[in-house]
């Protein structure tokens, strides 16, 4: 039965491509929403990202307006700073309804590939539901329900703590679907989210518990905040565990490190699929990673710097050729290396 649970999980879980398509769809909707709210962010949440998503599950999106103004790249026009303002609304709920209403209108009239747009503004959590034809996703767009993002993070953590958790949740979800206990149409039936919560509760109650309770996690996270040393990167000194050996690293350096690691992994991944021919002079593998300009040049988003960078690579290759290293054997039979500069 364990094997069956795992097979079912592998067969029905979201693939990496499908997950990427979900992020892409969010960014397309973000572009549309940006017409009204420059610098807004549309984030996926729910089963698209909490690792409990089944192929074909809906795409829950959160229109995040709180980041507006935090970014340094304000959309400015001359000396005027462009910022949106919610005016004269008696409550946050009404503001949410108004925001979703204009976005719904915009998606309906101008959203490429967005069809069957429904504004469900009187629900407990107001939303705009639509079908995104190019990706095939059924989308629910909400705003002002940050708590749902938090519960997605919590489920992600629970899913990662023990490999049996996701397998059990998937099987219970599939079982419920097979017997019409759940449905893709909203109604009087139990939801996948509720079923997941029940499974998590069950696993918290085992003896010994398979999952920690939220209260226990909270106690542990308190401990983190009380740490006197809170820096962007914390690497514990194995011999003096109270010391952070990367205390000096700033947030911007950490970000740079993460971006470069991601770019380098991407370059290697591309080469795996499309290995440069041995006759071409293109640097590959480690050599490609060691060229400082390459990481940017090979990024998936082509930019204007591309031709400039390829020119730089050509020049660099020429300079490597002219700095050619010569190997020869001296009279004593010893191998020596001399470098022409
Ligand atoms: P969904 O109902 O879409 O559930 O709510 P789901 O987890 O994505 O599962 P499927 O695959 O679509 O059936 C999306 C998210 O909204 C939050 C949860 O984070 C959930 O994952 N939510 C939903 C709540 O916080 N409370 C609720 O009552 C319902
Ligand atoms: Mg969902």
UniProtKB/TrEMBL annotation:
Basic and acidic residues bias (residue ranges): 318-333
Superkingdom classification of source: Eukaryota
Gene Ontology annotations of biological process type: histone mRNA catabolic process; mitochondrial mRNA polyadenylation; mitochondrial RNA 3'-end processing
Region entry Disordered, spans: 318-341
Domain Poly(A) RNA polymerase mitochondrial-like central palm: 2-159
UniProt-listed SUPFAM superfamilies: Nucleotidyltransferase, PAP/OAS1 substrate-binding domain
GO molecular function: ATP binding; magnesium ion binding; manganese ion binding; poly(A) RNA polymerase activity; protein homodimerization activity; UTP binding
Record's GO cellular component terms: mitochondrion; nucleoplasm
PANTHER family: POLY A POLYMERASE CID PAP -RELATED, POLY(A) RNA POLYMERASE, MITOCHONDRIAL
Annotated protein name in UniProt: Mitochondrial poly(A) polymerase
Species whose genome carries this gene: Propithecus coquereli (Coquerel's sifaka)
Primary gene name: MTPAP
